[in-house]
Amino acid sequence: xxxxxxIISISxxxxxCAINDPVKTSQVVSDDPLITFDVQDYDPEDLELFIDGLPxxxxxxxxxxxxxLELIPGQHTIKVEYEGQIIFTKKSYFGESTTTVIRISx
Length: 106
What we know:
single chain, alpha+beta, Immunoglobulin-like, 1 helix, rod-shaped
């Protein structure tokens, strides 16, 4: 009888150890403004993007909402160059929770 009690106790202990802790999932939601581009008449890979004077690579990286560029809310200067020539420049305020589509064409 004593052996049966020990076997049952060990079985319950092992079963209790096998139970996983609760899983907690969290998701970070950003309210930062987004910008994306709609390019006509140019190859987006040939367009260089500058924000507040800093290079951000070619515009082709930011052509859809899924790959939109996230900014800090506030005033920013957006500049796009093609072969070293400025083809687009705009100084604008970008507020929280906004998505701006910048259209570039000849």
